[in-house]
TrEMBL record:
Keywords: 2Fe-2S, Iron, Iron-sulfur, Metal-binding. It comes from the Bacteria. Gene3D superfamilies: 3.10.20.30. This is 2Fe-2S iron-sulfur cluster-binding protein. Belongs to the adrenodoxin/putidaredoxin family.
Amino acid sequence: MGNITFVEHDGTQHTVVFEEGKSLMQTAIDNLVPGIDADCGGSCACGTCHVFVDPDWIASTGTAGDEELLMLDMTPEKMATSRLSCQVQTSVEMDGMIVHLPEFQM
Ligand code: FES
């Protein structure tokens, strides 16, 4: 258990409690965070769960794997700390983490 803050492009913040082991995508969905559509249900096949991990926290999430990068390469908003939130398993080290939501994912 811990808190993760999702920040919308306009600065609106959503601080939610996460259960360790649940994906970052599922955590967002369960807490009605806007902008995470997760059309493929978490199988790394749609790219609609894109987030930018705050640079201070990328060591906690790690960077995207090869399959994930293929999906991320299809979005013009991709950044160095981009992750597909369905591919990030939450862990206790993520307590206090901040992730940002893309502008064009609503
Ligand atoms: Fe589809 Fe993450 S939910 S890629």
